[in-house]
Amino acid sequence: MALYGAPVWYGALSGDNALQLRRAQHVLAVRVIRGYRTVSAEAALALAESMPWDLDALVLAAVYKWRGDQRSLGQRPAPREVKAERLRLEEDAVARWRERLVDSTAGHRTTGAIAPTLTEWVRRQHGRLTFRATQVLSDHGCFGAYLAMIGREPTAECHHCRRCDRDTAQHTLASCSAWAGERSVLISVVDGDLSLPTIVARMASSEEA
What we know:
This protein is mostly helical.
């Protein structure tokens, strides 16, 4: 519904209207990933594999214009030609999206991890994020640092190992002793590299990973 008639209105899309689209899409993306409302729009859309609607509208408008140009030249593009042109335009849009993630103003840990493998991440046909996986990828969840930030805990210390004064998603993922057993299984899959970009790349690479 949000993109209905996009080829007609895209040229008049203003910054304010694009912001309204983004706010609505942000709400949907947070629900898709089962995340906290505090997850930034940039991070939520990336985790949800949901291209920003203004870029989706750009693709629709460009395909519409291309078909019109072809007709004006007396050409009638076959469905496979239209599909190929749309794919090319979508690849350009993903490249623009990647640039936005690199320059994002919030959710840097998440957007920085997904940006290098954005194409593989959004086109994978396997795996869906669980509530817990989203917490680890977004850093918004049952971690001392986050809970202290939103006023739910007096300190940011880890409740599990009691040896960390700043409990974060990366602490849980890479060093908290309470999760040593689970971590040993993960290490065997990612060859010992527990940085978030590596984790995301491995998740995108195969259903098993």
